[in-house]
Design goal:
Blueprint lengths: L1 H17 L19 E5 L2 E10 L9 E9 L5 E8 L3 E5 L6 E3 L5 E3 L13 E4 L10 E8 L3 E8 L7
Antiparallel strand pairs: 1-2, 2-3, 3-7, 3-8, 4-5, 4-6, 4-9, 5-8, 9-10
């Protein structure tokens, strides 16, 4: 009789501890990096590492920068002809008359000019936003390509990385 009274209590204790981890080597105590990046394909164009970075320089008019890497699996080139962003902003090249042509078998990197990267190509400045981009959120970016068409991607807002 005594064993039957203790059995439910013991079962309750065992079940409540079954989902808990303890000690320093359990899976819930280890830190993990968030691998979240904005990648998408539109036709043969591969769009990688799309990111919005708030501008850190007070000398320019840009509120933020849009950066990404582009490649095509097609045998003919394509071109990024336009970009729009949620929040009412305007996306324009940082260099007048810049062309963003994606050549087959070559990676086209559109850098954040404030990131300190070695890439010297023109970037994409974002102006006219109703509110400053907040690090840790996302912004909807629509990219338009000459041949591949348009695609929307939710780009993370991350701080500029200075090398």
């Amino acid at each position: 009789m005594r064993t039957t009274r203790l059995l439910p209590a013991a079962l309750l204790i065992v079940l409540s501890l079954a989902g808990c981890a303890s000690g320093l080597n359990d899976a819930t105590s280890r830190e993990h990096a968030t691998p979240w990046v904005a990648d998408i394909n539109v036709g043969p164009v591969q769009v990688r590492n799309v990111m919005v970075s708030p501008a850190t320089s007070s000398t320019g008019t840009a509120q933020a920068y849009l950066s990404m890497a582009l490649a095509t699996t097609s045998s003919k080139p394509d071109e990024l002809t336009g970009a729009t962003i949620s929040g009412g902003g305007t996306v324009t090249p940082t260099a007048g008359g810049a062309s963003f042509t994606i050549t087959p078998n070559q990676l086209l990197i559109i850098p954040n000019p404030e990131s300190g990267s070695a890439s010297t190509g023109p970037g994409l400045a974002i102006t006219g936003l109703t509110a400053s981009p907040q690090v840790g959120t996302t912004m909807t970016v629509t990219l338009t390509f000459r041949d591949a068409g348009s695609v929307q991607v939710h780009a993370p807002v991350r701080p500029s990385v200075v090398a």
